[in-house]
Amino acid sequence: MMDEYYMKLALEQANKAGRLDEVPVGAVVVSKTGDIVGCGHNRPISACDPTCHAEIEAIRMAARTLGNYRLIDTVLYATLEPCIMCMAAVVHARIKRIVFGAKDPKWGGAGSVVNLAAGVGLNHEVEVRQGVMGEETSEILKMFFKNKRSRTCQTQ
Q1: Catalytic: which of 22, 55, 57, 81?
Q2: Where in 33-72 does DSSP place strands (E)?
Q3: What's the chain's Rg over C-alpha atoms?
Q4: Residue 76: C-alpha distances to residues 44, 133, 150 (Å)
Q5: How far apart are CA 6 and CA 81, in angstroms?
Q6: Mutual orientation of helices 134-155 and 2-19 as an angle, nearest 10°?
Q7: 19: part of which helix (H) or strand (E)?
Q8: Does 55 qualify as catalytic in the annotation?
């Protein structure tokens, strides 16, 4: 299925973040014709900007590519459930659908903590598919934090 194809591309973005020692989260935005119009990976540490999440980076690029701040009929693929900030951006951009791999039980904005996708009280509802390549996306995060803890213990 196409969701798995695009999620693999989001995983490539996540790996870029991991190589930069950023939390390995990646995202891509796909147009209704199947073209990738935006991509991004986490970089809040290197950019010294708390808003530089993978989804925000991908949304910014998609808006520039399409020449419109409304991303009607697009799909956002993210390796991790978008946080509350990123889900708010998804709603503002009018993204039609999000597909994500791993749930985020601490910050998830698409159902795990709050569900901004449901559009309750908002002017836009977002379709959600979760768990696409969930094992792979969870594993990259687990390995990143395991390695980070290991390096921290070695320096103490």
Answers
A1: 55
A2: 36-41
A3: 15
A4: 19, 15, 33
A5: 15
A6: 10
A7: helix 2-19
A8: yes
